[in-house]
Design goal:
493 residues, Nucleotidyltransferase, domain 5
Length: 493
């Protein structure tokens, strides 16, 4: 069997009440109740609501319903024919522009009920609330880190409590009277559908008799009942109409008797625990009709009647734009960006300094390995540059000695590459000058000498390669020779 939980929060001008209800199938059970007075202007409803999930053990992840203040909700009963019914449904607050004491652009409306009076006449009940009042209620919940799923009027919450605990009220004509915070709300229902709502402030009465307040309320109800009778039924009230009195006043019994005496209708004191179970032996005596009804509304939306101002077409759940707050946020973001940029620059500078120190250490290490004889290191780069210039001067001694730019080392390398091992040439003397190369050596045969002469002519850019003084030694084993090769000189242009 599916288990659901819901929280109803009633935020009044002088009290705050919250109820957590558990639903198992069709049964409802009150798990937790929190009620506290709001005595001072410094008392913060947001701070009180914050304690629900912490100190008082309410569940954090359950749907939340909250009621609008009684004085913030306006009701209007309109009569129209069938062609005029659709504009009332679709035009929003502009269809009732002159029916509510608010600017249509700042009004949120919800249709409560439709009633067919005659064949071509309909009665429509509409609830309206100002956007600013709705936003203030939202801010209280958002300040407590809660986002409501339902924002309803108190009359529908009380009606849900009455319908759940007194199921006989769902049939026939009934009147629900709710008295709280010097405010009287009167709701007429027929077959569980709301027909009309009247909300009246009550001033403190003066009198010596103990039942003077009860008699005063009974007389107000008698007058209002006569007005409703003419507006709704054009006749006497239904003889079997029942009145349900929802109040936490200590003088509730006297008030019930006074109402029965003046209106001649059976009056039932609403018991919020009649059909709703409770986990606690101690039952809270405060006004919990609204909070309990809100929890039932959110747990059984298909079984209860009401409105949800959050679902209106022109409502916005976003908080009002605060220019100062936006500027403050932009300033904080700008400062944060600058700080992050400065921190990044300092980190980059530290990284570069670390890399520079590492490069200097590597340069010093290379300097030590390259010039171990240098003991005094002042500027490794400058000292290496001086050493390279000195070595370059020494190398220039072996630089180019021909017009083609061929150096002594190039000549010796070419001679070595042009002397195959099979020729068995042995050089005893090599003389390289700027104009020629003189090679003196021995070989095993004359053929080897002349073959080598041919190879030398192809190896380098020699103009001539001459073999001179070729003779065999007296013992006849080796052939002595002298090769004289001249470089090709470029003619000046």
């Amino acid at each position: 069997m599916k288990v659901k939980r819901g929280i109803g929060i009633d935020i009044g001008s002088s009290h705050l009440c919250a109820v957590q209800v558990l639903r198992i199938g069709k049964a409802f059970c009150i798990e937790k109740v929190f009620a506290t007075p709001i005595r001072r202007s410094m008392d913060s409803p947001s701070d009180m609501i914050k304690t629900l999930t912490g100190k008082h053990g309410f569940s954090r992840r359950v749907p939340v319903a909250v009621s609008m203040p009684k004085e913030a909700v306006f009701f209007r009963r309109s009569q129209t024919d069938l062609p005029g019914l659709e504009p009332l449904r679709s035009s929003g607050p502009f269809a009732l522009e002159y029916d509510f004491p608010m600017d249509p652009n700042e009004t949120v409306t919800q249709r409560c009920s439709y009633r067919r009076m005659t064949a071509d006449k309909y009665s429509v009940l509409t609830a309206a609330v100002g956007k600013e009042s709705l936003r203030r209620t939202l801010d209280i919940l958002l300040g407590a880190k809660m986002r409501p799923d339902l924002i309803d009027a108190t009359v529908f919450a009380v009606h849900s409590t009455v319908a759940q605990n007194h199921p006989e009220s769902r049939s026939g004509v009934a009147m629900v009277v709710h008295i709280a915070e010097s405010h009287l709300t009167l709701t007429v229902t027929q077959d569980n559908s709301l027909l009309m709502v009247r909300s009246l402030p009550m001033a403190d009465g003066a009198g010596d008799e103990a039942d003077s307040d009860a008699q005063r309320v009974a007389k107000v109800l008698s007058l209002e009942t006569a007005i409703l009778r003419q507006k709704l039924f054009d006749a006497e009230m239904e003889p079997d109409m029942r009145i349900y009195l929802a109040t936490a006043d200590d003088n509730a019994a006297a008030l019930r008797d006074a109402i029965e005496e003046n209106l001649h209708c059976p009056t039932i004191l609403v018991n919020p625990y009649a059909k709703v179970l409770s986990k606690h032996f101690h039952r809270v005596s405060s006004d919990m009709f609204v909070a309990e009804g809100l929890a039932i509304r959110i747990l059984a939306p298909d079984k209860t009647s009401g409105v949800n101002f959050l679902k209106a077409d022109n409502v916005s759940t976003r908080p009002a734009l605060s220019v100062k707050r936006e500027f403050a946020i932009c300033a904080v973001l700008a400062v944060a960006i600058v700080l992050v940029a400065l921190i990044g620059l300092f980190m980059r500078l530290a990284h570069l300094e670390n890399q520079y120190a590492q490069v200097r250490n590597e340069m010093t290490d290379i300097f030590h390995r390259t010039l171990p004889e240098e003991k005094n290191i002042v500027n490794p780069l400058a000292q290496l540059e001086q050493k390279l210039q000195s070595m370059r001067k020494d190398y220039d001694l072996f630089g180019s000695i021909s017009g083609a730019g061929t150096g002594p080392l190039d000549v010796l390398n070419a001679i070595a590459l042009s002397t195959p091992s099979e020729l068995k040439i042995s050089l005893d003397d090599v003389l390289v000058t700027a104009e020629s190369v003189r090679l003196a050596g021995t070989s095993e045969s004359f053929e080897s000498v002349y073959n080598w002469q041919h190879l030398l002519g192809e190896a380098l850019d020699f103009s001539t390669v001459d073999v001179r003084d070729v003779h065999r030694d007296p013992n006849g084993k080796r052939v002595h020779f002298v090769v004289l090769a001249s470089f090709t000189r470029e003619k000046p242009t």
